[in-house]
Design a protein that fits this description.
Strand 2, helix 4 and strand 3 form a beta-alpha-beta unit. This protein is 31% helix and 27% strand. Helix 1 packs across helix 2. A seven-stranded mixed sheet has the order 3-2-1-4-5-7-6. The chain is globular and about 40 Å long. The protein is α/β, with parallel strands linked by helices. S-adenosyl-L-homocysteine binds next to helix 3 and strand 2.
């Protein structure tokens, strides 16, 4: 699938309902998701992995994008049951049901060995509403990823590299983007605003 086509397909997914500000449900836009996933795929093709885990999946844009680029399957973890319903719609609208599993639950309750795939992809809460809200995601990602964690976070985040190093992993800043944000989070009267974001590629050392 070409970049333009992927960006268009992802932009048309049923939108995240954005009901619960405390859960920091600001999603990745189709253009950003497509560019990010394309750049990952050109380095390490999704089709050569055993699958993807999308933590804090929202409408599933990241996992679905990986599937459209060739990932064999995806597991989506999302705490908000209403969001899970729009995720299910998104999956069915693209006839991807057979490759997908949705877990409606809290990433904090994932235990070691319960759920593993080569890759974890996530745009977790950044901790702007609730300090350290991203930490359960970082901990869960380490339990889930056999090979790499792909993380989207605020560009100003300084704790990613030290956290990865402490865990014995290697974090590399991979891309930077201006992420469009819905007005409910921007505290401005403009309809859309953007926030500075960055992507990290975090690799497990060879075992
Ligand atoms: N991955 C999507 C959504 C990102 S927003 C995208 O990139 O567009 C973050 C999502 O994480 C929200 O849908 C929110 O409901 C969910 N979430 C927040 N805390 C969670 C937790 N503890 N466990 C699982 N999901 C959580």
């Amino acid at each position: 699938m070409r970049l333009r086509h992927l960006a268009m397909t992802l932009s048309k997914l049923p939108a995240h309902p954005f009901r619960e500000p405390a859960l920091e449900q600001y999603g990745t836009d189709g253009e950003t998701a497509a560019r990010w996933l394309f750049s990952i795929n050109s380095e390490e093709p999704f089709e050569e992995t055993d699958g993807i885990i999308d933590l804090g999946a929202g409408n599933g844009i990241l996992g679905i994008g990986a599937l459209l680029l060739g990932a064999p399957n995806a597991v989506f973890v999302e705490i908000d049951s209403e969001v899970c319903s729009s995720l299910q719609m998104a999956i069915s609208s693209l006839n991807l049901d057979e490759k997908c599993r949705i877990l409606n639950g809290d990433v904090s309750s994932i235990v070691e060995g319960q759920l593993t795939r080569d890759l974890v992809i996530m745009n977790p809460p950044w901790g702007r509403q609730t300090p350290r809200a991203d930490r359960p995601f970082l901990d869960a990602a380490i339990k889930c990823a056999n090979d790499s964690i792909h993380l989207l976070h605020g560009r100003g985040a300084r704790h990613i590299e030290p956290w990865a190093e402490a865990a014995g992993w290697n974090a590399k800043r991979w891309m930077e983007v201006d992420l469009p944000m819905p007005a409910i989070y921007s505290h401005h009267t403009k309809k859309m605003d953007s926030t500075e974001a960055a992507m990290w590629w975090i690799k497990r050392p060879a075992r």
